[in-house]
Amino acid sequence: MNLSIIKPAILAAMPFMLLFIAGIVDAIGFIHLKNGLFVSFMSGNTTHVAMLLSSHQYGQSFYYIGVILLFVAGITIGEMIAVLQQQNYRWLVMSTVSILLFSAIFIEKITIPIVTNFILAFAMGLQNIALRITINKAMPLTFATAFLANTGRELAMLLLGKGDKKVFIKQISLWFSIFIGAVVGSNLMVLSLSYALVIPIMLCSCIAGLLFWLRALTDGD
Q1: What is the structure's pLDDT at 51?
Q2: What digits encode the pLDDT tens for the residues 96-143?
Q3: SS3 of 137, please?
Q4: pLDDT tens figures, 9-44
Q5: Spatial CB neighbours of 126, under 8 Å, sequence gap ≥ 6
Q6: Does residue 219 have a pLDDT over 60?
Q7: How many whole angstroms separate alpha carbon 100 and alpha carbon 103?
Q8: Residues 127, 22: contact at Cβ < 8 Å?
Q9: For residue 11, what pLDDT is reported?
Q10: Neighbour-count burial for 51-77, b at 16+ CB within 10 Å, e otherwise
Q11: pTM value?
Q12: Digit-coded pLDDT (tens) for 171-196
């Protein structure tokens, strides 16, 4: 099996898979708490917490602040794993995300709903480190606005006759991955949070297993 062919293929497909997962989990977290709190869309949470603080709703604002801080904490831990375990960080990160999502199923049954969202936010922050171009340059995930902005720029270049159709399709497909994930997550929540999380857990576990099997591909990253 030619690993030199497999590596670029996996890395090319990985953003779409991870964004799809992020869309599912974000929809699950949003519907679970029923108050407009996202677990991966931090732009929306930032706007919400600013409005809550402005209207002196300090109690509810702490939920948003907590989610934002835990999202950042997840990224911080992910960065540490990536720096310390350069050859193995991809599968380690995705394995940890799988474990966190799995633990959320049980924690949801024994504590208040916001704690589950805290765990989901931490997991989504951690997942942002799962894909790197080099050890110093990661592709941020879950940032739908950035993909739409890139889509708009590429569309402008195409209309001017200077763009690359492949780049345009890639950017809009990255956004579409989040969108489809959110659609799937919303439909899964018709059942329950426990059942809804099974799909992203399975996907994360499969990705972790695949990356473990191909861990040699991370040499030199």
Answers
A1: 92
A2: 999 999 999 999 889 988 999 999 999 999 988 876 644 445 555 666
A3: strand
A4: 777 788 889 999 999 999 999 998 877 788 988 888
A5: 74, 75, 77, 78, 93, 96, 97, 100
A6: no
A7: 5
A8: yes
A9: 73
A10: ebeeeeeeeebebbbbbbebbeebbeb
A11: 0.86
A12: 899 889 999 999 999 999 988 888 99
Q: For 216, phi and psi rounded to 5 degrees?
A: -60, -20
How many whole angstroms from its chain centre is CA 50? Answer: 23
- Tokens in use for 147? 């993909």
How far apart, in Å, are the Cα atoms of 166 and each of 17, 91, 111, 138, 153? 19, 29, 47, 21, 13
DSSP state, residue 132: E
Element (H, E) at 57: none
Q: Mapping DSSP to helix (H, G, I), strand (E, B) and coil, where does residue 138 land?
A: strand
Is the CA virtual torsion 1, 17, 128, 207 positive or negative? negative
Query: What CA–CA distance (Å, rounded) separates 176 from 13?
Result: 14
Neighbours of 152 (CB within 10 A): 13
d(CA 187, CA 196): 8
DSSP state of 56: T
In whole angstroms, give the CA distance from residue 63 to residue 124.
16
